[in-house]
Each structure stands twice: as C-alpha cells, then as structure tokens.
Amino acid sequence: MEFSDRATHSDRAKPIGAVMVVGGGIGGMQASLDLAESGFYVYLVDHSPTIGGVMSQLDKTFPTNDCAMCIMSPKLVDSGRHRNIRVITNAEVKEILGPPGSFEATIIRRPRYIRADKCTGCGECAKHCPVTAIDSYNEGMSRRAAVYLRYPQAIPKIFLIDREACIGCGLCERVCLAGAVDYGDRESEEKISVGSVILAPGFEVFDAKRRPEFGYGVFPNVITSIELERILSATGPHRSHLLRPSDGAIPERIAFIQCVGSRDAKCGNDYCSSVCCMYAVKEAIIAKEHVPFVKPTIFNMDIRAYGKGFDAYYERAKADYDVRFIKSMVSKVREKQGSGNLLVAYLNEEGKASEEEFDLVVLSLGMTTSKSVRDTAARLGVKLNRFGFCETETFTPLATSREGIYVCGAFQSPKDIPETVAQASGAAAAAAEMIASARGTLTTKKEYPPEDEVKPEEEARIGVFICHCGINIGGVVNVPAVKEYARTLPNVVHADENLYTCSQDTQEKIKNAVKEHGLNRVIVASCSPRTHEPMFRETIREAGLNKFLFEMANIRDQCSWVHMRRKAEATEKAKLLVRMAVANARLNRSLSETEVPVVQRGLVIGGGVAGMTAALRLAEQGFEVFLVEKEDRLGGNLLNLHYTIEGGDVQAFLRDLIDRVSHSSIHILLNSLVVDFSGVRGNFTTGVTTAPAMVHQKIQHGITILATGAEEEKPDGYLYGEDARVLTQLELEDRLYKGDWGQISNLSPEVVMIQCVGSRNEKHPSCSRTCCATAVKNALKLKKLNPAMNIRILYRDVRTYGFLETYYAQARREGIIFVRYDPEESPEVKKEGETLMISFEDKILKERMTLRPDLIVLSSASIPRENKELANLLKVPRTAEGFFLEAHMKLRPVDFASDGIYVAGSGHAPKLISESISQAYAAVARACTILSKENLLVGGIVAVVEGERCAACLTCVRVCPYEVPVVNVKGEAEIDIIKCKGCGTCAAECPARAIDLMHFTTGQLEAKVGALVGG
Amino acid sequence: MIVGNRKDFSEILEKLGAARRVLLLGCNECVTVCGVGGEREVGVLASELRLYWTKEGETFEVREHTLERQCDYEYIDQIRGFADDYDVILSMACGAGVQYVAEAYKTKLVLPAVNTTFLGVTIEQGMWSERCQGCGACILDMTGGICPIARCAKSLLNGPCGGSSEGKCEIDKETDCAWQLIVDRLKESGQMERYEEILPVKDWRTGRDGGPRRRVREDLKL
Question: What is the pTM of this model?
Fold first, then answer.
C-alpha cells in the first residue's frame, strides 16, 4: 500500500505536505483546488460515486440565476484532472490517527464493480443494462440502469454498478470492450498520510415525512424543494418542463411552504437553514420564467434575504414576477378529492383561519446533517453541536474541536454557495498554515523534453488519429472510411484509428507516430476537448511538440451521439468535422508561455479584524506582509464592539490579535494611505504615504487584499442627534459596556429598538445583515441587567439566520416583544415637551400603539467606509451602494476580476466577526495560489493587437470584462498578456479587425468555415 | 465623429444592379469607430454578398479593402492598381469619402453602402447621439455648452416651445428637450443670466444656406 513508505520513513517532527479533504461538493472542490495550487498534495474523499455534491442537482442559483451545472463543471473538471489532487470516490473515512501535522487516515473504498483504470466512460454498459433502478440524482422521479453514472458531467467519469439493483446478467461485462467490468470487486482499505484535514461533507435535506401534516409521500402533488429543482432542470425527469406528479398537468397555483424542518423546536431543528427563503424565491421566479401563467405564493414567517444582492432579488420577485408572499406558517395541507389539488390551511394576515386551493405544494426543506456524517465525526473525535453540525468557536470559525482538522460549508452551519466557497478557501488557508513548512514536498511538477521548433512558414505535417470510442463512435460512424478520407486532405501525412484513443498505450502510439512521420501537427477526432484536450496536449508535448499544435474534432458528442440512427450521414459529418480540424490545424502556431517571477510578498489594505487576520495568516504561511491602516491604531470596527451574541469577549480577542500582528514578517504602516497602484498579479507596485511626515514609499508585492471594512451609518430622522435618548446599537453597546445609563431612573424602563434604519430602502436597497442579531444581542444584555425592562423590537423581517435563530427564540422566551412593521408605515418618533413618544401599528392587536420610551435604539445600516478613490486606483468595481464587487457572486466570492486582488471583511458586504475572519482566511488561500509560486506562466491563448490597424475606437476597452485593454500613447490599443484571459470578446468586437485571439484567429475560423462550406 | 447607418442589404443589391465584380471599400476612421464601415463591417457585407450570389448561382468577385481614410487623396490612390478590375466601387465611408473616391476614379461607378446621418458622440458602446450640425457660427458659449441648433427639433434660439413636457421633446419620449437641458445646465453652472440674453436671428449663411462651404488656410498651403 502506498501509505507504508511515507509514514514509516517520514520525519515525525516535520509535517506532511498533504491534506485530506472530506466531501467533494462545491466547498470540498474549492478547498482542494486552492491547496493543490498552493503547493500541497490533496486527497479528495467523497462518499458518493462522483464529486459535485448537492450543487450538481440544482437548476439555477440565486441571485444571478446562473445555471448551477454550467458554473460548477469547470471546477469539477479542474479537480478531476489536477496533477496534485487525487479524487477518491465511493469512500468513507474510517479513522484518523496520529498527531496533527502527521495524521494517518484510513479510507474505506466501497466496491464500484467497474475498474477505474479501464473504464473510459463511454456508457455502452448502461445502454445494454436490462435493469431499471430508481435514479436518486433526479430524486427518484426518473429511472436509470443498474450500471450508471450519477450525471453526465460526473467526475470521475467512471461508471459503477448498483449491486442492489443488478441482476448479475453479465451483459455489461460482455459489451464492455475496455474490459472494465469486475463483478469480483471488493471493499478495500487504504491508509494515507496527511498533515491536516478539512471536513466539507455538506448537508442532507430534512426528511419531509417528519412533518406529516403537510402530506408529503401521501399526496402526490406535495413535493420537496429539491424535487422542484430537478423538475425545473434541463437534465431533470421532464427535461425542464414544469409538470406535477399526479397527472403531468402544468400546475398554475404553486404554494411554497417555508421552514419545513427549520426554526422548528418540535423536530429539534430550532435553527434557521439560511438558504430556503432565497431558493424558494428563485424557484418561484424560474417556474414563472418556464410557464408565465404560474402564480407562485410563498408562505413564510420572515423572508431572510440577508446576503449580498438578495433583497433586490426578493423585491424583483414581487414587482416583476408577481410572486405573492404571505406571512403565515401553514398548519395543514389536505388533498381535495378527485382533483389532486391541495387545500392549504393557514392564518391569514387578518388573523382568520383560511384555506386556499393550489395545484402544487412545494416544501422548502431545511438543512440537516446526515447520520453517516455524524457517525464519521464521532469516529474522528470531532465535536458536534446539539443540532448535529460541527461545533466551532466565534473567533475560530474554521477549527473543529480536534486540532489539525478544519471545517467548512454547510456542515459548519447552514449556508449558501458563495459563503461555502469562501469558507472552503478559508479552511484551505487554515489547513495549509499548519503544514506550511512542508509546502511543495509532496506535489509533483511535470518535466518535459525540450520543444522542437516549428516555424510558421514550415509546411504542416499533420497526423490524424480517429477514435472508435469502443462502439460509441465506431458503431455509428464508419471510422475506417473517415481515416481513408483524412489521408486525402492537404498536409495530412499520417492517419490512424484506435479503439480508445485516450488509453495509455495509444498515447505511446501517438508519440511514436510524431517521431516516425515527422509530424508537426496532431489531430484527435474523438470526444470533447473539455475533458480530453489537456491529456492529448500533454502527449504531444512529451513528444517534443508545442501543446498548441494539437487540435481536436468532436465526432462523438457532436456527431455519433446525436445522429445515432443516420449512420451514413453521420459518417459524412465526421469527415467534414475532420476536414475542418485539418484546415484549422494548418494554421495552428507554436505559442510560447513565458515565466515571470512572482514577488512573494503581500499587501493588505485595512487594519480591522479582516485585514489583521489576513496579514497574520499570510505571515504564518511564511510570507512577508505590508499592512496599511489609515488610522493611528489597528482594530477598525472591533474597537467599538465589546461582546458577541455568543458571549465572546471582543476586546480580549482584539488585544490578542494586535499582539500577534506584531510579527517579524508583518510591516505595519499606520496613518498611511495608498496613493498610487500599478502592476499585475505577481508583481504590483503600490505607493503609500504615511502621516504626519508624509513619507512616501513604494512597496513591491505579488498580491493585494482589500479589507477596508464598513461602518455604522449615522441615522437620519427618528430624532437621532436631537435627543440623547435616541441611540444607535453601537452607542448602546458602548453604554452597556461602560454601565453609563445617564438619566434612566425608571424602575421598569421602556426600550424600543427600530430595525432597518437606513437599510432596505431606495437609497440603500440591501439588508445590513448583522443588525437583527445585534438587536437581539443587546436586548438580551439589557434584559439581563434589568429583567423588568420592557423591550420591543420593531422589525420588517427578523433575519437571525443559522444558529443565531436560537438567540431570537431565547429573546422571545425572555419576554422581548417583536412587532412587525411595513416600510410604508414606519414608526413615528416625536417629542412632546421632554417626553419621547413613539407610535406604530401593531399588526396583531390591529391598532396604533403609542409608547413613551426611555430609550430608542436605532439599528442603523452598515455602509462601506470611504473606498471610492481606492477602487479607482486599483481599478476594482463597486456595487451601486459602494461595496466592493467580487469577480463572481457565486463561485469567486473573494476574488476580483483582476487577478491577484482579493477582498475580505465588511468592505465586501456587512458581516459578523466570525464571517470576516473566515473571509480573511479565504483571501489568504486565494492569495497563496499566487504567492506560493516562484514564477507565473503567461501568454499562450491571449489577444494580440496589430497596432497599425487600430482605429483607437475604444470598443475593446469597453467590452473587455476584465478591463485589460488600454489605448496607449501611440493611440493604439494595447493588451497586457499577463492580464489577458483569452476570452476573445475584444477580437470579436473590434470593428477594425485589429485584434486576433491566438489559437482562435480570424484566419483560423474562416479556414474552418471555408472547409465546411467551401468544399 | 461622423456617424452613419448601413443601408439595407436589399437597397445595396438594387443599387449594384448587374455589377458582379465589386470592390468593397472600408474606411478606418469615423465609420470604423461607429461600427458601420470598418474592416469588420466590410467583411460582414462581403460575406452577405457572397452568400447571396452563391445561393443565386451567380459568378462574382468581391474584394475587401479598407483604407486608412477615404477623405484624403493619397489614401484613395492606394487602390489605383486594382480599381479597374472591378465593375463598381462600393464605399462604406461617409458621404464625403464616397464622393472623394468618385472624384478620383472618374470612369468608375462608385456607390454608397452607408447613409451618413450626423456629427455626434458615443453615448455608450453601440449608441451614438447627434451633437453638431456644422452651422459655422458656434454659440455654445451662450447655451451652457448644449447646442440648440443640433439638439432642438426646431433649432429654436431663445427658449423652448410649447412642446417641451417633463424635460422631453414632443417629437418622441426618448429625445430630451434641448432647452430644458440648457436651462438645467445654466442653473447648475450659475449662468442663468445668460438665459435672459436674446440671441439675434441667426445668419444662416455661414451654414448650409450660404451654399457649399470651402475653407482655406493660406499659412498651411504649400
């Protein structure tokens, strides 16, 4: 076994430069990719037969409505083919022994019955399998064979046999030309040595049958949210047609019931699942987009649209999609006899019991942890909280109770995709830090032979290799005929056919052919470049050819698979595809990728909790850091906070953090401002001016982290600033801490808190996320000081997401009164003489209440600190509200579109301390993917400007999504190849055709089209 | 910049008549920038012609060529060597370019492929707007930098007409009332007193009404 030589020979004192990531969902993949790109070997272990997790089952994602699979599959492919990630699927972790830094993990692999080293993923076995089994990917709503791939994009693309369904007929074994079927496969155990571990096992949806009053499993038209997700998906049971189960009719009236299995003490889940409000809104919108006459209704207690851009999405659902929101918890669902329709019973807003008819009811299921995950945690000695999620502390949100084992994603607490991705990067940073001294010890880098020069003017000598792909292509397309045809094409000097062109022996065959026939271009006509191009490129590179001299023709996915029944025409089309590839390959040129050195130092702007954490974590990973703070002391917002809702001592934490930041690798620049900025990832130069002497210095660094934070807005109205009894939450917290009560002498003081002051309005449409929890925190503190205090919190929606919900429940138990108000009738505050008065509508009593409070506390909005100039200097975008705008809302939550610049903390959007800490770690992990490398490779497929043709029209400057092109002093567009990502948008749009995208030049595209239609 | 619109394909075909050897001539200045007659658009129109005539089973030759400018004879001279191989020169420049090419190749049929529309600016990628009519006597100093000649539908000189409503012109809801803009701008820049000054009746002889214009600068002449 692989383990023996490593563990026995390794020096126990030195950590092992490998990490085990448990769970291959979006979080696990992100953590693995960050680690592998930072010099650590990764074992990515998943209990399922494929990585991808729950995200692979989702249709669209909020708030961008991106297709989940489309945005996730690049990560799937990258994880699957990364040199330094070993994906181990269908496996469990049995135990982890040894000290942190030098763990020995035992993995149990369940039998797959298909040999991973032989299966090519062609799918012939599934086509012949006579068994129909229930397809769990489609939540049981469709059928599959007993030998299957969980979904078409699955990684690894290796089939497996479901032995419970398999009848052992042996058909698959007979049709598999690769000889991959192995009925004798057994469970096996493997030991691996790793320095640290990340747990990212994700969640399981709540079992809807535990709420029998909603009739799931009894009434066919009561479905779960994940089932609706599959129904809406193009790969779902009805190919994205919105049909209800009982009769296949299109449901017009759809009811969503929120909080099924969440915020529910009866079933033990008195936490909020954090994501259901948003996914219900999304599903309602998408359903409406599929079928415009659909009328969705969402029954909810609060709409918890607390994330970045969520409130705008929620408002859009109401205004543009006519989604109806009813504030009520449904008490019962029953079926209307005969119709399959459902009667939903609820208390309407007037407080009357009513019943409404719907065609379909969707239960918005909450997040729970699975039994197998809880069992694994128990075996590994990782403590869980009372809900079965991983226990973490406020100031160490990524650490489990066992040293060296870190956590991220929904297992830590219910969360959505972007927060999972950010936390996964964060966990990667934490896991990397403890083994940082072993960076690069277990990763491998490929060494290649020197490249043979192929001059552009040299006559092309093309070799074409045509794949049968078992019978996937060969069964439809006449491969020998295509081969003979290829031989007749210009510049083709060699053509051959293979059973599986991707097999190991064929790679050798290709390399030999390159030598033997003096080939300087290679074409493989087989499957998709998406999965196979990197491998073939590597093959020709090993043969001494530049990798860009490789070309692919997809005669499987785009030919044999779609023209299965028209073999003659399919053969003709395959010939055309090969002809196009030949025309293109003739124009392929060697492209050089040059190495540019990386300045292995970081710059962190902002000395609050996020900035200090980021600086410290970078330093602990062994990198020198400059930490720039404009004030005269470190701390940022933390200077004004005293305790967390969980009871954590903020000032003690801050003192400790500031202490640690006095680190030999951290240069702290107080009273300092960034005044200029230039350069690209790996090599930035920043000018910093330090007061009072206004000393100017230039800093060279490889990455930049922006952690400029947010602050409490000074409220407008409610007599704030006019009466000392009207405070903000921060001011209240300060008073609570100092015990400074001023004039309150009342024995049972009256306190009113007003939520959403300055948030969720026209000027500032977003939710400020933290104020609900802050109000609850301070209310509980007040109640503790004086239990006789009457506290009312006037709110629009209480957004105590995740485990914060428990404090909201506690507040209600302790007699704190929550009164909902609508923005149209905001509370009114006025003064009569010296008496402070507040009046508001009480929706339950249905009357206007007027109180004479002793204190009014305003939960004021979080607004970004002044960052406009900085954003201009660094050329990074901001949202309309001035928060920094990340590269992609879902999957790149801490990156900017410009490489090498990252965001952490509240400057990105309002955050709790623990969230800022997670995000700071995340920015560090992303930064280390650059800092850990001595050189970066640039060039290759990039846009190149022919200056003479340029009309300086600015089109490229405007259309580039990464803001790369500039018009230079010569009046010509200039594109920095270090920044260019090769998307080709500028080349397509240039009205003077002055820009070409290398490897996809206009000449090549014309040649391809010419070969197709020109004859 | 000069902004134009490409003519409909059917109109271009009709103008070409029986001509099948076509020299399609682009211009790398204004019409490139406003996306109507640069090398890319030349390629697009050439492809359209080729596709059409191929479909019709005709024999033809379409040559694509883009000049740096069609309003300078040195550039126009660059096609001298092969212009005679074609029945027609189809110019994608503005009206000035089309005419200058026609002047240079007196025996050739020179056709326009573009309708020249106005002198304007880029509002955003893919959107242009008129700003100047070349009246020859600029009054922008008086009108807050907003031209009532080019931007008022009636070219009124002393305040809006009755068709100004909620800041928009009565001709359509998309068009701002130039005088509303002028007043707003005068207010913003603290020059409202300018609004009181009556602009005299305009002497249009400096503009088109004085007949075709010519400009000579003796100091620059060779």
Answer: 0.85
